[in-house]
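Hi,

Apologies if this is the wrong queue. I'm a grad student, and the batch job for Globin from Thermoflavimicrobium daqui produced an output file that my downstream script rejects. I'm not sure whether the problem is my script or the file. Here is the sequence I used:
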Amino acid sequence: MNSFTSIYESIGGATKVRQLVEAFYPRVQAHPLLKPIFPDDIQPVMEKQYLFLTQFFGGPPLYTEKYGHPMLRARHLPFPITPSRAQAWLECMHQALDEVEIVGEPREQIWSRLVMSAHHMVNQPEKTDPKSNR
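Support response: The file is valid. Your script probably expects a header line. Output copied below for reference.
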């Protein structure tokens, strides 16, 4: 990957981003920590994620064109995101990246950006009551 190639271009553009989103969300819906904070109808969330990741990886600014600035943390504040939920999200994404075979330097770049973003989304500490359902 040369310095002029975006992550988006290097992984295969729209097709690969769509594959990643489609590999990711079934994992989210099956994860006991993540399922409660996502709607049953996951399709609108998947479409927003596709638009966002396209832009986040250096493709066309589809998310901004449709929804305005991503403002990730502000848009996620209504959802209780704990450190363990951020970690669960990253685990699901790691598995999805494996499934769609994103490897090498593009994967390293993607991963470092996703790790930073996931930790930035944390807006609540872990609950300490063992009876609580995070």
